[in-house]
Amino acid sequence: MSNIHKKRSLPPLAALPAFEAAARHQSFSRAAEELHLTHGAISRAVAQIEERMGVDLFVRRNRRVWLTAAGERLLKATGSALDGLDQAVEDIHRHAGTSPILTVSCEPSLAMRWLMPRLGAFRQANPDLNIDLRLAGGPVDLLSDGCDLAIRRADYGISEDYITTHLWAEYAGPVCDPDCWENILDRDLSNARWLHSRTRPDAWDDWKRASHLNVSPASEQYFDHFFFALQAAVNRLGTAIGPLPLVYDDLATGRLIAPHGMEPTSFDYVLITLDPPKRDPRITVFFDWLTGEAGDMGDGRLPDQ
């Protein structure tokens, strides 16, 4: 007999994730925390399924719950179904290489000071591929965030679930406005005003260790974000530690100088993807363009002025 017109006697599908979480934890409260719902919402979802099916899924006693035999069977089936859906969504995401949009997550300072000024040239060279740029830093969940890839400074533990591809090594050094440097007594950093960032508070100490210089500032100023500290250096407020990609254009135009050159920070910028970049033609194009734009920056070479 054909199953084309078979009527499905399924429970309310929207309620199944709540049931699955409650059954897995055997706790409505923990399920509510996981799904960012109220205890009452979990309870109502479970009651809705029980009413539709005509069976109890939990034994409720003294504010605790235990699965019944029916609940155990439904948990097994629901968990398998949700896992299958997760896998299907991930597979679709991984193989959407024909999409005209590439969604890129990038650290804000790198995006604003290096990547965004170059995206116009990328668009001209690749008019059929649009970059949807998301500004974010630190750990990333590509699937949950709806991103195809992320660009990060690898200064934290990146999950082994991802493929990390080296982009360039980071170099950094003191940077300031040329006139500001001329006005520093004896052009000595110990007579300079040092600009710090609360998001990278050890930048100066790291540079001193790398350059083997033991100096202290005449005065200091702190900013909430690295981007602001670098902008303050452009605006002649003092001397900041500038990672090469973030100050590359300012060095090229002469808005900033790096009087002590650059030292390696021991951190790399990496591309984070679900699969090797070569599997997705869009990512391949973007990766090749990124590394081409970086040029010799990964060797610490300063731009010609």
From TrEMBL:
Keywords: DNA-binding, Transcription, Transcription regulation. It comes from the Bacteria. One of its GO terms (molecular function) is DNA-binding transcription factor activity. Pfam families: HTH_1, LysR_substrate. Gene3D superfamilies: Periplasmic binding protein-like II, Winged helix-like DNA-binding domain superfamily/Winged helix DNA-binding domain. InterPro entries: LysR-type_TF_proteobact-type, LysR_HTH_N, LysR_subst-bd, WH-like_DNA-bd_sf, WH_DNA-bd_sf. Residues 11-68 form the HTH lysR-type domain. One of its GO terms (biological process) is DNA-templated transcription. PANTHER family: HTH-TYPE TRANSCRIPTIONAL REGULATOR (PTHR30537), HTH-TYPE TRANSCRIPTIONAL REGULATOR TRPI (PTHR30537:SF74). Belongs to the LysR transcriptional regulatory family. This is LysR family transcriptional regulator. It comes from Thalassospira profundimaris.
